[in-house]
Amino acid sequence: MRRLIGHDEAWAVWRAARGGQRMHHGWILAGREGLGKANFARAAAAELVSEPGVPQPAPEAHPDIHVLEPLPSNEDEAKKRDDGKPYARKRNISVDQIRGVQRRLVTRPTLGARRAVIIDAADDLEKGAVNALLKSLEEPPVGTFFLLVTHQIGRLLPTVRSRCTVLRFHPLVADDMARALAEAAPELTGPALEAAIAAGGGAPGAALSFAEMDLGGAWQLMSRLVAEGDPDLALRGELSTILGQRPDRARLLALLEVARRVLVAAMDRRDDAARLRIVEAHAALASLAAQAPTYNFEPALLLLEIGGLLASVARTREGAA
């Protein structure tokens, strides 16, 4: 199994607990999306269930590692999954999925004394599923351990949090980001790699999603908007050209996230007045990002709005660019 990069602290906490007398049965793996928590959960589960001298299957095929995640959204998407292709998923993990794995927990583990249940992500549990899971967390079957991946721990019920140990994951530093991306996407080089690292904000998964969207050119233009302003709308015109006339909703949502990351990256290089403008622009972008999934924005107008907010950071107190 490939070594995970950048989470030495989390590994140290996990392995210290695993080597103790009584390891807690419930774990919450908390941190922003894209940090590698799900990969950590699978690798940690593989260590947990392994037995000396007993051959171990890969985590995805291990009979004592149960992974619950949103199912394919329909039969066609299920076929894509079975063929190893990208597929659309349902929005939630259902109560039937939780009850299904609970029925399997009444038997003994197959290859050893322990088994692991990974929920990826616990943020996606529907209400009935949370209530069903609580029963297992309150009275865990012997040898069963729960690993709950969560991107927003505040969305979990206090009753769930109180029954688990929280293992926090932090953004990777730039060097670890570069190493992680070099392993995952060696084709990323030069400005594209630099843009992905910056846009990822310490999360390799976010950086890879950014790279797949091919938004490196947009990142560079947005950085120029923040640094130079755009009095003649030329940079905003270039941004529209890069994205095309009718970018899809996913690409627009990604662009909003990129714009927010550009502002965050610029914060440390500005004086107090510019920082205030950055905060105001970031708040406006956050509002747009919250509306974009449901509002039918005209892409051209949305791009102008995003570009205008970025350019506003470069203005002097008198309003000149």
From TrEMBL:
GO biological process, one term: DNA-templated DNA replication
Annotated InterPro entries: DNA_Rep/Repair_Clamp_Loader (IPR050238), P-loop_NTPase (IPR027417)
Secretion signal span: none
Domain of life: Bacteria
Example of a GO cellular component annotation carried by this entry: DNA polymerase III complex
Biased composition (Basic and acidic residues): 76-86
Residue ranges, annotated region (Disordered): 52-89
Family annotation (PANTHER family): DNA POLYMERASE III SUBUNIT DELTA, REPLICATION FACTOR C / DNA POLYMERASE III GAMMA-TAU SUBUNIT
Name the record gives this protein: DNA polymerase III subunit delta
